[in-house]
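Entry:
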Amino acid sequence: MFEKMEHEYRRQLLHAAFGLLVLLFPFIGAEILLLLSFFVIMGLTFLPEDSPINRYLYKKPLPGSREMLTGNINEGLKSAKNLAIAVFILMLISSLLDFTSYRFPLYVIAGAIAISTFGTSAAKFIRHRKKLQSLRYEPKNIDGHESHILPSSIVLLGVGIITAYIAGTWFLYWQESDVSSNMLFFLAVIGSITGALFESIPTRIDNNISVPLGSGMSMWLFSSFGYSVPAQQMFIALIFSLVLGYLAYRTKIADLSALFSAALLGVLIIVFSELFWFILLLTFFILGGAFTKFKYKYKESIGLAQSKGGVRSYENVFSNSTAALILAICYGIYPQHAELIIFAYLGTVATATGDTLASEIGTTAHSQPIMITTLKPTQTGVDGAVSILGELAALLGSMVIGLLPILFGRVDHVFLALAVTTAGGFLGTNVDSLLGATLQKRGLLSNSGVNFVATFAGAIISGALYLLLI
């Protein structure tokens, strides 16, 4: 056990040491860094299996062991090479953009590397230590990857934020720039949550590729907006979002990937708009989670229950909330159109709520549903099937979203807000059913894809109604 722990400790130290590359960023250009990462890739590719580095970092597998049978003896070096490949890709993008009007700042890449080296190394060390202490391994998922542990993911998030902020500060200390400390902290939080999210998603893609690329691209995107908030406000938004996501995780409404997805959404929606608009979106998640459990055994018996016991994943979060996120960002960037954006936001949340309630409650109806495209009787649970109970649930769910901003005094036009939100949510829900009966039935859209399109449709409908009625 101790020998295995020692080898893991050495590997993670080497992995973290790769992050020290960021110390060179202020003094050499992206082209030199591009060449350096290329040479690292080549060196790791042609490194002999019996090299001193391999013997130092990897215990020779026993005959018949999993490592020997699968041929994954040098899996650690493969991960190191993948990290170098990710850095190479980021540097290549930065170098190519130098010939355009766009820029991929090196301080952003430095932050992404810090998150994917120091952050992930700390997380892996915590995870490995916990496994050895408990003398048992976490269950395997269907892809054969180990399930992720919440404490190690939180460590990744915390260490990632600190080291990404330090890396950015180090770079800007040596370079003349007007980037504020608030912006650095804002990007460090966004990049670290994104990294923790990608690390929590079970996938065949190595985290040493997905984490740095995901973190780097998200930080680049938001750095281009030039929008930031005071660090204290950002910290409060982060803690608030994490606590609420954790509560959903503990009550088995969301899995780990959904926790970090909701945290990312929460931070962005709070800082770009207001806390209330995130609470409104949380209302959808709470109602959706609660009604997923509604007559769950009955829905399970007829094969229509939500998979994994009704636990939501990142796919559920993003398919139903991407439109809301985009509108919240637009709210912060284009305050001159704030009222229109608010009504569109109400429409998209109402659509997500109405559709979820229609699905979870409508499938329990004893009356036979009809197909929305033909109005002919069909089986319960078929894509595009609607029922009176489901339509009433969609209407009531949409009305709840319309009533909340009125009760909390967040809108000026009371009856307009209720009418536009309810109509947008109800019609958006039926757009979802229409897409299910056509595009989803033909295999052109998945269920998540249908939800994604329908929530945008609800936003457009509510926004259009607002412009017509105002």
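The radius of gyration is 25 Å.
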